Amino acid sequence: MFSFLIRMALGLMLMATALPVPAKTHITMQGTAIIGNQELPRILYIVPWKKSGLPAMRQPSIARLIHDVLAPLDREEFRRKIYYHRVFLGH
Predict the structure, then answer these.
(1) Distance (Å, rounded) from C-alpha 76 to C-alpha 83?
(2) Computed from CA positions of residues 68, 70, 72, 73, in that sequence, does the dihedral angle turn out positive or negative?
(3) 3-state SS of the chain?
(4) Which of 13, 39, 44, 83 would you label with 53, given CA atoms 20 to 30 Å apart?
C-alpha cells in the first residue's frame, strides 16, 4: 500500500511538471516600408549579365583520373579531412 502511494505521488508530480505553460513573451517586430517617388513609372528591368545555359562538360581522361588517385597526399590536409569526418559524420 505504501509503495502504491509513493508511485501515485511521483506520477502526479511528473504529470504536473509536464503540463504546458502558456508563453507570456510577446515580440513585436517593426516591418520595412519602402517609399519611392510617385511620379516615376513602376518598371523593373531585368538584364542578364551572363548567358544562360550549362557550361560544356567534358569527361576527364583515364590518365588524369589515375594521376589524381596516385598523387601524393599532404599530411596536414589528410589529417584535417580525417578530423572533419570524425567530428561531423561521427565516424
Answers:
(1) 10
(2) positive
(3) CHHHHHHHHHHHHHHHHHCCCCCCCCCCCCCCCCCCCCCCCCCCCCCCCCCCCCCCCCCCCHHHHHHHHHCCCCHHHHHHHHHHHHHHHCC
(4) 44
**HSE of 6 in the Cβ direction (CA atoms, 13 Å)?**
3
pTM: 0.29
39-52 pLDDT, tens digit per residue, is 766 777 777 777 77
φ and ψ at 49, to 5 degrees?
A: -105, -5
In the numeric block, which cell numbers belong to residue 83? 578530423
Residue 76 φ then ψ, to 5°: -65, -40
